[in-house]
Amino acid sequence: MTGRMVGLDWRRALHGMGVWVSLALVVAIMALSFAQYGAEKVLMGPHPAAYFNAYQAMLSGLGASPNALLYLMVPVLAVLPNGDSLAVDRATGADAHFLVRAGWPGYLWGRLVGNSTAAAATMFTGLILSSVLGAALYPVALPPYLGSQGPVAYTHQGVYGREYQPFVWPSLFWHAPVLYVLLAMGVVVLATAVIAGIATLAAVWVRRRLVVLVIAIAVFLAGDVILQLVGWPAWIPSEMVGGYLVNYTHLPVTIAVYWIVPAGALIAVMWWRIRIRDWPYRREWH
């Protein structure tokens, strides 16, 4: 029954406006980043062949550029596709029908997985479309690599790696740039799934659709503010969505674990609520 509930969430998302608005916003935000990347190209003047390329354009939009917007917009893009699905069911009374048919485990797991995967798929599709646009605007090739020594970003004979390459796992960037960009996209998709899951979990206690969406966004923003205040700016959620590309602090496994841990926490709390088999009516925010 969990699979049927996931399918229902997907159908609901595809028939709604949220998924299409989110998809359009992803492409529009990345297109804006490409335009800014192109403006930088003009300002820098002559450059080696393929110095400005589709791979760097994508990474710039994902967070390698200080002008990137996507990693700041991820919480909004995560909840738009179907973040309020459980809240809608509870507000309209449809939850009783689904609970009879699917049971507590099938219903709640289906809503959690369905919402998270719908949001993640929307983000991934938007990023794939954006990469096609980037490939149409810039060369799908890297400039010659001359090593990591040297204080300058490039010369007319080639590129120095230290200031040109991403700070995380630079060797993979040079040897398999397509895989590197896909992994960077995967981090954004994973973060999107986690934030969407927060909205579903919040709906266990809250029936108001707008409040549920705001809670998921607020958790992300609160993480940014709190970790900044305690002196851990390198570990704020927005940094770990894409800003890590220009931060030597993080290892690839660190970035993955950063999002896998809250995903596990969401699963654990949902499992606990499923065992109770009842809505928390007395403490619920109507």
List the helices and strands and how they pair.
Layout: H1 2-15, H2 18-44, H3 54-64, H4 70-79, H5 85-92, H6 94-137, E1 154-155, E2 158-159, H7 161-164, H8 170-175, H9 177-202, H10 209-229, H11 237-241, H12 252-276
Helix pairs in contact: 1-6, 2-3, 2-4, 2-6, 3-6, 3-9, 4-9, 5-6, 6-9, 6-12, 9-10, 9-12
Explain the overall architecture.
Helices cover 70% and strands 1% of the residues. It has twelve helices and two strands, in the order ααααααββαααααα. It has a two-stranded antiparallel ribbon. The protein is mainly alpha-helical.
Estimate the mean pLDDT confidence: 88
Secondary-structure content class: mainly alpha
Strand content: under 5%
Number of helices: 12
Kindly state the percentage of residues in helix: over 70%
Which residue ranges are poorly predicted, with pLDDT under 50 across at least 5 consecutive positions?
Answer: 282-286
Q: What is the spatial order of strands in the main beta sheet?
A: 1-2
- First CA to last CA: what distance? 28 Å
Would you count the extended β strands for me? 2
Q: What is the CA-based Rg, rounded?
A: 21 Å
Largest sheet: 2 strands, antiparallel
Helix-strand pattern = HHHHHHEEHHHHHH
Task: Considering the chains and any ligands shown, give keywords for the structure.
single chain; mainly alpha; elongated; 2 strands; 70% helix; 12 helices; 286 residues; two-stranded antiparallel sheet
